[in-house]
Amino acid sequence: MAITKTKFINYVRCPRYVALDDLKKEKLDSMITVEEYKKEEEIEHIAELLGNMFDDSGNDLIDIKNEHLETMMPYYNKVEILAGELASKYFEGSFKFSKSTYNQESFDAVIDNIRYLCYVDIYNENDDGINIIEVKATTTKKYLDLGSKDYSIFEKGNDGIYYLLEDLNLNIEDYMPLKVYERNRDKLFDKYSGPGHYIYDIAVQRFIIENDMKSHNDNKNVKYYLAVLNSNYVFDGKYENGEAIYDEVNGEDIISYIDVTNVTRDLMDKIYLDSKKVKGYIDDLNGSRVPLGEYCEYKKTVKCKYCRLCFDVLPEKHSILAYINNNFGFKKGNIKYDTYDLINDGKVSMLDIPDEMLNREKNKIQKDSVVSGQPYINERKIKDGIKQITYPLYHLDFETFPCPLPRYKGERPYTQSVFQFSLHVEKEPGVCDKEKDHYGYLAPNHDDHRLDLIRYMCELIPDDKMVLVYNDSFEKTRLKELAYIFPEYKETLLKIRDNVFDLMNIVKTKSSLYENLGYSKEEAKMFNYYHPDMDGSFSIKKVLPLFSDLTYKGMEVGNGVEAMVTYASFPKLLPLDYKHKYQKLIEYCQQDTYAMFAVLDGLRKSVK
Ligand code: SF4
Hints:
The chain has three domains: 3-284, no CATH class; 314-371, no CATH class; 380-606, Nucleotidyltransferase, domain 5 (2-Layer Sandwich). The chain is 40% helix and 16% strand.
């Protein structure tokens, strides 16, 4: 049972993980089957893929199930194959890559009597040495966003590969102040940050490869690269036999390569120390509780698989983690308290945090409402917000599929591709029938149905009527994207976008809206409504039960991720299953828009 890269990354979390992993110490210098290796990697790949798909959509993340693996794995595999095929444009020599681990180059090394093993996504060898290329279903955006407003810490070299500015021997001060550069570069070394996560991963790979080569006295020069999706790539809609063809478009390739040779070199000492840690954990095999920490990666798709077990110390309701912005910690005088330190000190509930440590006004409101069991309501603000609404009112919601590889013309990697809309028309305040006033469109398959969807939506929504959404940045961005992809509907779509009003502005608040209505800065930014049952979340799923008996509980498709996976599974469903799932998706999206009506209606009644 050799330790794979994925196992290493998990084992280094804490000693408890290792002990809980039912590890057979005596077998730790033997090999692992390819099937076992693949299984571990697949779960990790899909966790990362789903993490990227829902980076900014605000959906609840889910536990990865087999059906998710089956549905999403082909998308990941396709990225891997494209990265392998395109590599020959950027690197000379011979290549070894495959969607199946069976044909990939592997390295293994015995360190402290433990065998470590890794497979390389793309192995390239030429006269200069070896290039190790790891494919990640993330985008260049994660890396190019590091830097100042105008420049990234990465720049393309003459060979089209991205390098750190320092690796290109550029004068950093010409791009940004050195401090800004260093602060952003440091994020690459933080394995809990988005870009750092992948750097740590390939650094573990490098550690195993270096030890393997050392044991064979192999001194070849090795360089390390990440292959990621290019966020600047806009698909031109070219297909062959129904398959999208990702040719170069406007000088951009679908995959970009980032040289991380020097960054991973700088991590080698840390990985060595981490391997010592892992060795110690394996020797002790101590399953007793350990302090909780960032390494649990709670609430991330890549969270520790034992979170459920260890986080049982937190109460189900009103835990300290329900405090909004708790990631910034708490403060008493000049002393700052980290949230995990407080948890490990037994302060697990909201009520365990003394008032003097609550520096944020919003946190005080949260605690007061938990103590009193009563909601906090700023009636005047809610009434003034509701007064802004005009009728008939069009409640709109989109479901999207943020495919790693763009599927339709005009899309980029991870474009939130709209496949469904739901619309409820509230003719006058409080008048909306769940069935009779409902309209919608759901793409029947994975062909490009965006025009049908847009056409129907534009027919239904007059361009001078108010459109209500929940959390407007998502819907507004989709409308704008569609407007530029379909110029014939640009004017109408942009008008619909301009008419969007966000229901969350009334539930939560929006500073600019309320300042315009004459409220002070302080009052404008404070919540309008907070109920203890919200537990720190303003999502429609949390807010709905406070105003209505409507519920998502028991729904076969009950959240955004399930909706996306259900749509993704369409092509492989048998006719009867397809019909059933299609209907469940319609019901889910219908519930979303009717929930908005119910929340608005409830709010209106609560401030009468
Ligand atoms: S949840 Fe945290 S403390 Fe528990 S095993 Fe995982 S990493 Fe360790």
